[in-house]
Each structure stands twice: as C-alpha cells, then as structure tokens.
Amino acid sequence: MIEKITAVSKGMNTESLSHGHKIIIDEPAQMGGTDEGANPLATLLASLAGCENAIANFVAKEIEFDLQGIEFTINGEIDPNGMMGKEGVRPYFQKVNVEAQVQTSETEERVQELQRIVDSRCPVYTTLEAADVEMVANWTKA
Fold it and tell me: In sequence order, which residues have a C-beta less than 8 Å from that of residue 35 and are 6 or more positions away?
C-alpha cells in the first residue's frame, strides 16, 4: 500500500489533496501565515486522533468490543528552539499525551485491552514512538 498526497504551497499556507479531500495547513498571522488552517504540528496530532480512532474501530470488530465512540484530548510538548535551528535540540515533539474517553458498555479492563492493541497497530502512534517521542496514553471508560 502506498499513501499519496499532492500539495501546493504559497507562503506559510499549504493546500493538500488526499483522495479528493482538501486539507489546509497554515500558520497564524503572527507567524507569517494567513490562519486558514491548523498548523502542521496540530495537524499531526489530529492525524494521531484520527488514526487511533480508525484502528480502534477495526480492532473493536475483531475482539467483539462495544465501541460507541471515543473523545480524544491530545497535546504535544516541543522545544521551539529545535525548529529555529538550535544545535542539540530536537525539532520535533519530545512528549505526546493522549487522553481518550471511550464510550462503551465494556469494562475498564477491556478498554485497556483495546488501547494496548490500538497503540501497537496505529501507524501514526508507532511512527512517533519510533522517533523516540515519549508517548503517554491514558484511555478510560467514559
């Protein structure tokens, strides 16, 4: 499988096309952008939420889990000095926290089982882990 997007950029604004869907990534005006879309780092975190949700739905079917929905709150910690070129500072997240409230009739133990499987199979989550980003995930029954 190969995933492909096309993108056109003007200034800080990038308009991407993926399977007929437009994605706008931009920066706020104070950063030189036009604020027409989320910034790249927020978009990465949104991709994490979307990917975890998709994999959770696949896994829920496999393990006969009553998944009614998930609400995510995700934040990433980054030292902006890395993006500005400071030597010795990584230009990507140091830590990402994932809080997930799972709507389900299942037990808390089953929610933890779902999380373990999802985190091990989610391509975005595992890519961040492979980049040595500290991943802190906390899934609980809503």
Answer: 26, 27, 28, 29
Q: What angle do CA 117, 123, 124 make, to 5 degrees?
A: 110
- pLDDT by residue for the chain (142 residues), tens only, comes to 999 999 999 999 999 999 999 999 999 999 999 999 999 999 999 999 999 999 999 999 999 999 999 999 999 999 999 999 999 999 999 999 999 999 999 999 999 999 999 999 999 999 999 999 999 999 999 9
**Structural domain for 22, as ranges:** 1-37
The verdict on 30 and 89 lying in the same domain is no
CA pseudo-torsion sign 119, 3, 21, 83: positive
How far is it, in rounded angstroms, from Cα 43 to Cα 37?
9
DSSP H or E segment with residue 19: none
Q: What's the CATH code of the domain at 114?
A: 3.30.300.20
CA distance 67 to 28: 36
